[in-house]
Every structure is written in structure tokens, then in C-alpha cells.
Amino acid sequence: MTELSFSCTGVRADQYAAGPTLVFRLRVTDAGGERVHALALRCQIRIEPAGRGYEPREADALADLFGERSRWGTTLQPVQFAEVPLMVPGFTGQTEVDLVVPCTYDLDIAATRYFDALHNGHVPLLMLFSGTVFAGEAGFRVEPVPWDRETTFRMPVEVWREMVDQHFPGCGWIRLPRATMDALLGFRSRHALASWEATVRTLLDAAEPAPPVSAVPPVPAADRPPSGAALLRRAAERMAP
Fold first, then answer.
1. How open is the CA angle 125-130-135, to the nearest 5 degrees?
2. Residue 215 or 149, more confident
3. Is 93 strand, coil or helix?
């Protein structure tokens, strides 16, 4: 019977990935020392927001996820981050493997909003493992990975920001319905705008209210210029015999 345990020794941003990707380094240990031919794992990663403190500006940014800070005693619940499969090659005793986790910068996703709200420190993560073990000295047998196998890891916020900056340097990202995208594209084409930034900026400028017109005090009657009728009357009086 295998006696597996798991730990996470580090994390890095994959600079060669086509999209935002984190690579966690996992250490798998079999205390029994038996030959493991293969290990089919499923890893669920959760954010444990109660495992760290928050600055005032971070708390303000997290209000849409957890509500007002006075309610965090009941609302600060775990947030699902990812669930990824992993095939671990054969080993005896101990091995280390990379757990590749594709990410998104979609701010409609709760985990992404949580990461984006943090400015420094660490993200408390809980990794839960399940799967199937193929082990044995002569031939092999199949047994499940016990459901109680888990480990914690504190991921530096800087790693997340490094990953995002690799793919969206100095930018944000929003998801829009197809009909809204088509309307924006039509607006951009009609106004011959060079970029999406120029398109959104033009719409924002048009939506801003016009500055209020300052009140102008009335001009005294004595200082007002003569009207057209008055000028004609004076000219007629001068031309009269």
C-alpha cells in the first residue's frame, strides 16, 4: 500500500506559454518506498482568503466579492482557482514534477478579481489531490489516492503580477457580449478610429457632461449698446430738414 504525501516547493510564471500560465513545483513522496509505475492525479486549487490580512485599499477592491469588511467573519469563504490533471512518471521514494495551471485575466472570474485586488504579500492556497496510483514491485496494482491528501502554499503576489504583465503589459481586460462587440466595431469603423483605446476614449468623452455655463450678470441699461431700431431713428432725425 502506497503512503503518498504532497508538498509545493515553488511557483513561477511560464514566460514561453501562449497565454497566462503558472507552473507550480510539486514534490510527491511515498513513505513506503515502493515502486510507483505511474500516478494519475487531479489537483484542485482553492484560495483561502481568511489566511492573510488586507490593507484598506485591498479591502475596498474586494468589497464586490466579500461585502463590507464588517461582514468578513461570515463572507470570507474559499474561492475556487483551478482544477487540473497531471500524469506523474514512475518513481521510487520521491520525485518532483511541474503542475501547469492555465490562468485568465477575465475580471468576471472571482479568482482573478481576488488576485487583481492584492498589491503585495502572499496568496494562501490549498491544494487538494485525488486520482489513481499504479504501483507494485512485480507487475502492478491499482489503488486510489486517498481523498484527504492536501497541502498548503503561499504564492507571492508578485508572481501573479509578473505573469499578467507578460501578456497584458500595462493593460486591463474585459469580456463583452457578441452584440456589444459588434456595435463597438461598427462605431470604430464609422469614425475611422485607429485602436480600441481610441474607441473607448471617444465614447467616454462623448458621455461626459458639458461643463456648466457660468452665470453672467445683466448689463445695466445705460451701458447697453443701442439697438438697430434706435440707430435708425437717430439717423432719420439727423437727416430731417
1. 130
2. 149
3. coil
Hunting for cell 483605446 — which residue is that? 197
C-alpha closest to that of 13 among 190, 231, 167: 167
Measured between alpha carbons, how far is residue 132 from residues 36, 39, 40, 75, 146 in Å? 11, 6, 5, 35, 9
Q: Using an 8 Å Cβ cutoff, are 4 and 29 in contact?
A: yes
pTM of the model: 0.77
Task: Give the residue from 86, 88, 94, 92 showing the smallest Cα distance to 29.
Answer: 94
Percentages (nearest 5) of helix, strand, coil residues in the chain = 35, 35, 35
CA 9 to chain centre: 24
Q: Of 61, 8, 15, 9, give the one whose Cα is nearest residue 166.
A: 15
pLDDT in tens, 25-64: 999 999 988 899 999 999 999 999 999 999 999 999 999 9
Q: Crossing angle of helices 196-207/178-190, nearest 10°? A: 90
* Comparison of pLDDT for 29 and 1, the residue scoring more: 29
Give me the helices (H) in the chain, please.
56-61, 63-66, 72-75, 110-117, 157-167, 178-190, 196-207, 228-239
Distance between CA 39 and CA 28 in Å, rounded?
Answer: 10
185: amino acid identity, one letter? L
If one counts every other C-beta atom within 10 angstroms of the C-beta of residue 108, the result is: 10
Residue 103 and residue 112: Cα distance in Å, rounded? Answer: 8
